[in-house]
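Handout, page 2. Input:
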Amino acid sequence: MSGTSVVFYGIQTDFFPIAYKLVEKMYALGERILFLCGNEEEVSFYNSKLWTSVQLSFIPSGNKHTILPDDAKFCYVWFSTEITFLNNPTCLLHNGIDIGNMSELSRFQKIVDIFNMGTKDDAKSRVQAYLKNGFIDQKFWFRDNGIWKQGSLE
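Output:
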């Protein structure tokens, strides 16, 4: 993968079924993912859900409570509340949470931003923040009657 890109997914349903379908797809493509969570409860919840939600038999994953930092490099998915590079991620996946230090984003090739359509204005502000950090290539997908359609946040 060359360059940097952001893919926005606007949803009106639960976050984790969509997130895990994307995790499966990215894992199949060899992506290493930092799954950014809002708090430690989400870290535990999403990490445990990965084991029961994905169709593939096993995706190496972990977090600071389940894997020693030196072994994180073996995880294709790392769950964390902070931007960390223990598993050498190529992709940042999150559900529209506040990223904080945006300067760290330049180390990723791709950002997957899944947001609830009720927070569309927040997503619009992240568009600008991503642009300021070099993520010029941005795509927008929205779920409409069960079908994904490309669009914009305008």
